[in-house]
Write a structure and sequence with these properties.
- This protein has one domain.
- The protein contains nine helices and no strands.
- By secondary structure, the protein is an all-alpha fold.
- Helix 1 runs antiparallel to helix 8 and helix 2 packs across helix 8.
- It starts with a helix and ends with a helix.
């Protein structure tokens, strides 16, 4: 790789990171204008299915993880790339992605056990899911800052 192409890559990466930060900051500023109830509803709608990907979620059940292990053992070259996914996510297996989420949970001072417990409650009531998503919003922000797209995280 030539020095110039590396510089171009870094400039593009920095520009992309600035766009991500701007999007998240703009979203947070729009939340300030809403009541707490409306904030919770808005975060819940943006976070979509993120609760399924954190500990205790549907994608983290033993059966789902067994399926992921089988898929992860296949060649990455054979896997179709999603149009809206980041290079970072495309370079990872499903289990790698879950490990990245768990690492960010800990960086945000949340424990795996706490999130599992809250996620089980969230499966029972939509209000509890909205509360969980509000608690997980800093995790979402940090994952975006690391280079994951919105689609990587919520779909």
């Amino acid at each position: 790789m030539s020095e110039k192409s590396y510089e171009e890559y870094e400039a593009e990466r920095r520009k992309y990171q600035q766009m991500i930060v701007h999007d998240v900051v703009e979203f947070e500023q729009s939340l300030q204008l809403l009541s707490m109830d409306k904030q919770r509803q808005r975060i819940d709608s943006v976070m979509n299915n993120f609760y399924c990907k954190v500990p205790g979620g549907l994608m983290r059940t033993r059966i789902s993880l067994d399926i992921l292990r089988m898929r992860d053992s296949e060649s990455r070259d054979d896997k179709p790339k999603r149009k809206d996914s980041s290079e970072l996510r495309d370079s990872q297996t499903g289990l790698d992605f879950f490990a990245a989420i768990d690492k960010v949970l800990l960086e945000c001072d949340l424990t795996i056990e706490e999130v599992e417990h809250d996620n089980k409650l969230a499966g029972e009531r939509a209000d509890d899911r909205a509360i969980l998503h509000q608690k997980l919003f800093p995790v979402y922000k940090k994952l975006r800052e690391k280079g994951y797209t919105h689609q990587d995280i919520v779909s």
